[in-house]
Design a protein that fits this description.
134 residues; mainly alpha
């Protein structure tokens, strides 16, 4: 009923509280409990109405069951994240005629970089900047 608390347990707690508090102070404590319950209920209503006012028309469109944290299973989320591989872009095969030209261009670039890195910069010369590396 109340998350595992039964009516019998509540009656037992009330009986023990009545015996501890005593018959003279019991009406005063019962009135204070009723007033506290009313305040909490009014606070909950005003908070709900303020949320509806703040959200406007979108409040009625929200499916609150999808936002329930009890539905999320961390094991399932991790399993799905590990199993879903991002799609890899297809690699176009190079034609036989382009392969030697591309290899020669890459070798020339490596040689130019090696030559450039071994020589010191002239006075006022800026070092090379690679925009893709930063």
């Amino acid at each position: 009923m109340f998350n595992g608390i039964t009516i019998e347990k509540l009656l037992l707690i009330g009986l023990i509280a009545g015996m501890i508090i005593g018959p003279q102070r019991l009406p005063r404590y019962a009135a204070a409990l009723a007033q506290f319950t009313r305040r909490v209920r009014d606070f909950a209503r005003s908070a709900g109405s303020r949320v509806k006012e703040e959200m406007g028309e979108d409040f009625d469109d929200v499916d609150w069951r999808t936002l329930d944290p009890r539905q999320y299973d961390p094991r399932r989320i991790i399993r799905e994240a590990l199993l879903d591989d991002p799609p890899t872009p297809p690699v176009k095969p190079q034609s036989a005629a382009m392969a030697p030209a591309a290899a020669a261009g890459a070798a020339a670039m490596v040689n130019a970089t090696a030559t450039r890195s071994s020589s010191p910069l002239a006075a006022g010369e800026l070092p090379p900047f690679d925009a893709e590396a930063t």
